[in-house]
Amino acid sequence: MKNSILVLAVFFGIYSHSQEVKPKDKIQFYGGFESNSQWYLNDKPLGVDHPEVPLRSNNYLFLNTKFKNWTAGIQAESYEDQALLNYNPKYDKTDVATYFIQYKNEKIDITGGYFYEQFGSGLLYRSWEDRALGINNALRGARVIFKPAPFFTIKGIYGRQRTGFDISEGEIYGTDAEIVLSDLFHFETTEWSLGFTYVGREEKSAIVNPKYNSLTSGYAARVDFNHQGFYFSSEYNIKSKDAIVEVKEQIAHDFIKPGSALLVNMGYSTKGFGLDGTFRRLENMGFFSERNAKGNAFNDRIMNFIPSLTKQHHYNLANIYVYQSQPNVLLSDESLLKTGEIGGQIDVFYNFKKQTAFGGKYGTKVAVNISNWNALGGKFYLPNKDYQTDFLGFGRKYFSDYNIEITKKISPKWQTAFSYINQYYNKKLIEETFDVVNTNILGAEATYKFTDNKSIRIVSEHMWADTDKKNWTASTIEFNLNSKYSFFIADMYNYGNDDPELRNHYYNVGGAFRQKSTRIALNYGRQRGGLVCVGGVCRFVPESSGISLSLNTTF
């Protein structure tokens, strides 16, 4: 706790100093502070006992300074007395987490220390930070970005990946080149670019004379095209042969396979109408800075970015059975065969104009989304641990989500929305447990604006599920008093559970205060156990009950 106080003291000291910097001064200071704390409580009806350390806090202080072409920064993190439940146990106590120094002008950008980067769509390499998910896989090393001409950019990276307050054993290096043909040939109404990527992961094996190389290489090529509302992009990736990790931290030294990924996105957009389609095929595309990190529960040491390509629902019940991408290999038995995934999604939206039969006085917006994901089809040889996939072969179904949302403004003060969602969730294949769950979900919400910054929002949801925990109902009321104060009360009730003792309410009540760039939020209630997802990437959280406090400010 002393370390937390020290971090806070440093924060307020530098924050106060930064307020004294005059605009005319050449040196600029900026940064921010984020704190998420929870006091876990016993909850006998929920069957939850608070952990041995009931008061826990995740804190992040980042400070940056800029002088002409130079920028430097540092981030300190404090997890006192421990990190929030189900965060990576490597996040422990207080320490300096990341730091960097950067020089940048019009042609060259050089960074030393910790940095974040993405090549193409991220299927081969992406480093990023997401505190809600406990992800920070920054690379510690060096990055060079060179732009010899306005239409050409080349990047080079080298380093080791952050894991907790340490770095991984595996070394990562790579390069990415992109040429913007539309700038080169001075196209006026068309955007067209090509990109090429190489990423290598070097990790020596502990066994003598392994059947695979210590270096695993990935190659990718991509194209992006945009012309008068029509757009098309595609990326193809291949990963060299490497040992398979089927069971957590167990490397199958005799089971060696390559990997590949194909991503295609295309669509058309104009005023009042949009159509977008995405197709993706993944085969053995798990990529980690250490082989045995595959299968860990914290997305630790992950090198690439493979989000689930499904609609990101804002309804609570629609996020109970949420799909997680399936890029890895598992040949367990005849009922559990996975070598990747194949599928995609289609989005369509249309705005019915005002003063029409469907548009009414204020217009009507309709959005339809369809997503479907299957295992890869092919031939599987369980005794010999081998497989041959069909490139466009569809195996057993993982997941589907068919939904429609209608948004309708009734008056200058009333805004409404209605949704229907149908989901298929193969829990046996996705979670490697049991059951297939079919759900139907209805959601309705209405927002009434008293003034420009005072409003009330009411949300009601119901889910019918044929197995697992069966039926749920949920409701939320949000009240924005003004631009500074907001309050909410919410509840999810699993009234259809076959076990009467598990028909639990997951209630929450809280509020937030905002002042310029500072936000403080206080919440009391229960956390439903399951997946928490941000942008298609998820982490598991256990059931809990308690009081949480969060603070976020920038300066």
Describe the structure.
29% of the residues are buried. The chain is 5% helix and 62% strand. The protein has a 24-stranded antiparallel barrel. A two-stranded antiparallel sheet has the order 6-7. With 555 residues, the chain is mainly beta. It is built from three helices and 32 strands. Strand 24 and strand 25 form a beta hairpin.
Cα Rg: 25 Å
- State mean pLDDT (0 to 100 scale): 94
Q: Specify the helix fraction band.
A: under 10%
Shape: globular
Which stretches are poorly predicted, pLDDT < 50 over at least 5 residues? 1-22
Please tally the helical runs, counting DSSP H or I stretches of 4 or more residues: 3
Q: How far apart are the termini?
A: 25 Å
The amount of beta strand, in percent, is over 45%
Main β-sheet: number of strands, strand sense, barrel status?
24 strands, antiparallel, barrel
Strand segment tally: 32
Query: What oligomeric state is this?
Result: single chain
Structure classification: mainly beta
Please specify the SSE layout and strand pairing.
Layout: H1 2-19, E1 27-40, E2 55-67, E3 70-80, E4 93-104, E5 108-115, E6 118-119, E7 125-126, E8 129-130, E9 135-136, E10 139-149, E11 152-163, E12 166-180, H2 181-184, E13 190-202, E14 215-227, E15 230-247, E16 250-270, E17 273-283, E18 330-333, E19 336-338, E20 340-352, E21 364-381, E22 386-409, E23 414-426, H3 427-430, E24 436-451, E25 454-465, E26 472-480, E27 485-493, E28 505-515, E29 518-527, E30 530-534, E31 537-541, E32 544-554
Antiparallel strand pairs: 1-2, 1-32, 2-3, 3-4, 4-5, 5-10, 6-7, 8-9, 10-11, 11-12, 12-13, 13-14, 14-15, 15-16, 16-17, 17-20, 18-19, 20-21, 21-22, 22-23, 23-24, 24-25, 25-26, 26-27, 27-28, 28-29, 29-32, 30-31
